């Protein structure tokens, strides 16, 4: 109940703030925008991760001549770190950020954070490129709102009014998708957009390009432990569950036994990276259990994901990305019935669209991990079927393809896509 009350208060403040900041909109239309200036605003308030990070990594001055790219960072430390790689960033919440929103001809985002505060008003007249942060298995944005309104209140019009007032119903100029199938069956039901690209996700470029900038905001302790495990000839797995509406992690709620998960990892001789969703409370980062490594929740898991022999998840979109590596995926939806009933509807039938073994307890998980380690080809046919469906390009170079669509003149004269 407290979580619901906090969320309701947050939404009310967001609505009031959006109305107040609307006074900035006329100013935004008067300021002349620069077509050669591109601003990047990552999810969770400017964190250096996900699609925004990796598209930024692929667009330096050398690879996009004549185009200036600037990242809006959540901290002064991140601004300095990005500058250390010869790239430009400004601190979130500063005058420099406001001026960037007013002047940038193109603004790249991968969440709905850009509609908060002054940003929606200041972005009037800019070309908005929405990358989003994953192929959605579960309902997001408009599809989620419509389903929630029908199921709980029958007041879809009220939600639509809120979204319009807060700016979340504004059509974006470009929407990034991964295939026509995903666009038709998921994104077309969830976003308003003027044009769509099927270039694929820049974050998956990290599987094929290990340039130094991509390693920024990667959990270095986890990376070192993975390297040591590899030197010993051991296997590595990743457990990445998505969040629930309560925002509590499964260990804090008692739904999963931490000692039992540790025992399962030890039994099969694997190092299991546990990457909880950043929104989960009780991250357990300092907890030390044999066989388990808790990865910093706000860090970027993608440069590490390519070193994993298998992935364990539940309803997270991360499994779609992992299909590019053609390695086993284990689905651990221990609360499947409750999740579908109380939390989210889905675009696709869960059993049909999740190419991997389904387990519902730790004994089943241990057996599935052992099978994945011993036979990496297990389930390859089903993985290939889904991969071909959701990806038009099952390889790297997504940033290069997207930049060529967005900036054909600049990208035609250079090789786009490698970071620094």
UniProtKB/TrEMBL annotation:
Its main location: membrane. Gene3D superfamilies: 3.40.50.11820, 3.40.50.12580. GO terms for cellular component: plasma membrane. GO terms for molecular function: CDP-glycerol glycerophosphotransferase activity. It is a peripheral membrane protein. Pfam families: Glyphos_transf. It is found in: Cell membrane. InterPro entries: Glycerophosphate_synth, TagF_C, TagF_N, Teichoic_Acid_Biosynth. GO terms for biological process: teichoic acid biosynthetic process. Belongs to the CDP-glycerol glycerophosphotransferase family. This is CDP-glycerol:poly(Glycerophosphate) glycerophosphotransferase. It comes from Pseudoxanthomonas suwonensis (strain 11-1).
């Amino acid at each position: 109940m407290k979580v619901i009350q906090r969320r309701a208060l947050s939404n009310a403040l967001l609505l009031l703030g959006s109305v107040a900041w609307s006074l900035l909109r006329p100013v935004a239309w008067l300021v002349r925008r620069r077509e050669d200036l591109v601003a990047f605003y990552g999810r969770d308030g400017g964190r250096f991760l996900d699609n925004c990070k990796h598209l930024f990594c692929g667009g330096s001055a050398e690879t996009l001549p004549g185009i200036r790219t600037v990242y809006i960072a959540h901290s002064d430390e991140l601004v300095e770190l990005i500058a250390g790689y010869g790239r430009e960033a400004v601190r979130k919440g500063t005058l420099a950020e406001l001026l960037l929103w007013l002047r940038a001809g193109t603004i790249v985002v991968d969440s709905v954070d850009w509609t908060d505060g002054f940003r929606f008003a200041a972005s009037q007249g800019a070309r908005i490129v929405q990358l989003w942060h994953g192929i959605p298995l579960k309902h997001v944005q408009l599809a989620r709102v419509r389903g929630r309104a029908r199921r709980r209140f029958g007041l879809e019009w009220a939600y639509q009014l809120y979204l319009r007032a807060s700016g979340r119903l504004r059509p974006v100029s470009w929407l990034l998708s991964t295939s026509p199938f995903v666009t038709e069956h998921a994104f077309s039901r969830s976003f308003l957009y003027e044009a769509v690209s099927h270039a694929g996700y820049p974050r998956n470029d990290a599987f094929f390009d290990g340039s130094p900038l991509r390693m920024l905001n990667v959990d270095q302790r986890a990376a070192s432990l993975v390297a040591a495990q590899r030197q010993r000839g051991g296997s590595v797995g990743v457990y990445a569950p998505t969040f629930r509406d309560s925002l509590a992690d499964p260990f804090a709620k008692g739904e999963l036994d931490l000692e039992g998960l540790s025992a399962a990892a030890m039994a099969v001789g694997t190092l299991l990276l546990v990457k909880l969703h950043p929104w989960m409370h009780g991250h357990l980062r300092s907890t030390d259990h044999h066989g388990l490594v808790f990865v910093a929740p706000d860090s970027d898991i993608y440069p590490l994901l390519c070193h994993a022999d298998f992935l364990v998840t539940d309803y997270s979109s991360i499994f779609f990305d992992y299909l590019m590596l053609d390695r086993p995926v284990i689905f651990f939806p221990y609360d499947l019935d409750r999740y579908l009933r109380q939390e989210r509807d889905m675009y696709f039938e869960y059993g049909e669209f999740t190419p991997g073994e389904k387990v519902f307890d730790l004994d089943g998980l241990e057996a599935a991990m052992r099978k994945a380690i011993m036979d990496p080809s297990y389930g390859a046919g089903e993985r290939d079927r889904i991969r071909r469906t959701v990806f038009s390009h099952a390889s790297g170079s997504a940033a290069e393809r997207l930049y060529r669509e967005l900036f054909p003149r600049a990208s035609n004269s250079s090789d786009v896509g490698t970071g620094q």
